Amino acid sequence: MDILTKIIEHKRKEVEERKSLYPVKLLGRSIYFKTTTVSLKKYILRPDRSGIIAEFKTKSPSKGDINPNADVKKISVEYMQAGASALSILTDKEFFGGSALNLTKAREYNYCPILQKDFIIDEYQIFEAKSIGADAILLIAACLTKTQIENLAKQANSLGLEILYEIHDEQELDKINDFVDIVGVNNRNLKTFEVDIQQSICISNAIPEKFLKISESGIKSVDDIIELKKAGFKGFLMGENFMKTGNPGKACKNFIKQLSIKEKNN
Q1: What fold characterizes domain 3-265?
Q2: Per residue, what are the HEC states of the chain?
Q3: pLDDT at 1
Q4: Burial class (CB in 10 A: 0-12, 13-18, 19+), 3
Q5: Which positions are annotated as active-site residues?
């Protein structure tokens, strides 16, 4: 059984348990259902920002613990002060060490777009995302049918949430729909967890122009981002590169500073 299949099997059980404990009616009492969301798409395009979606991730199936004692409040604030365009917060606990509480904490201390990073397979999770303060959700082509993607995206849009539609190859573009706001190319193979940014570059021209393009995973250097920008990418999801250091916020700040210097000199 590959990693993605294992994650989805566990997620189905997890969602059913949460449905019984926290029905949608209860989720609807959250203050975030009355709060206007912040546009991830607009923030990525802001000229005063870097285009980087800085991720808070403490663990992964391929690397194990990355930064298990990290403070989401401190790091999320430092990410935004460094010039990141948005935050990505892992909420999957079993495989990525995340939590809904981490996202809500980040929401309390930051006025910026927050992407909930999880494996969404059920409409219930859309209501959860809204209830914890997310502005955008991830829909992964590899674990959803075309009909599921459309239904989930439509439901999310009705709650004011934007959609990051994640693909791994050109064929998965066949499942795209008009409720999607952003297309992300994941450079990590979710079955083997091997990473290569050339995945984004190869797929770039096949993505319809009306969608904002971002590249996810495996971005390690300023040169990687410059190369991806040349291929038409506007956003860059980075987590492990920062989180594996002793000071993720500082690592993000230094990276963005180096990017700015290199772009001015080119």
Answers
A1: TIM Barrel (3.20.20)
A2: CCHHHHHHHHHHHHHHHHHHHCCHHHHCCCHHHHCCCCCHHHHHHCCCCCCEEEEECCEECCCEECCCCCCHHHHHHHHHHHCCCEEEEECCHHHHCCCHHHHHHHHHHCCCCEEEECCCCCHHHHHHHHHHCCCEEEEEHHHCCHHHHHHHHHHHHHCCCEEEEEECCHHHHHHCCCCCCEEEEECECCCCCCECCHHHHHHHHHCCCCCEEEEECCCCCHHHHHHHHHCCCCEEEECHHHHCCCCHHHHHHHHHHHHHHHHHHC
A3: 62
A4: middle
A5: 55, 57, 117, 166, 186, 216-217
Structure tokens at 194: 């091997």
**Cα–Cα distance for residue pair 51/161, rounded to 1 Å:** 19
The helix (H) or strand (E) run that includes residue 151 is helix 146-158
Strands 212-216 and 182-186: parallel
Q: Give pLDDT, residue 113.
A: 98
Q: Splitting the chain (266 residues) into consecutive groups of 10 residues, what average pLDDT does each group show?
A: 88 96 96 96 96 96 90 98 98 96 98 97 98 98 96 97 96 96 89 83 96 96 96 96 96 97 87
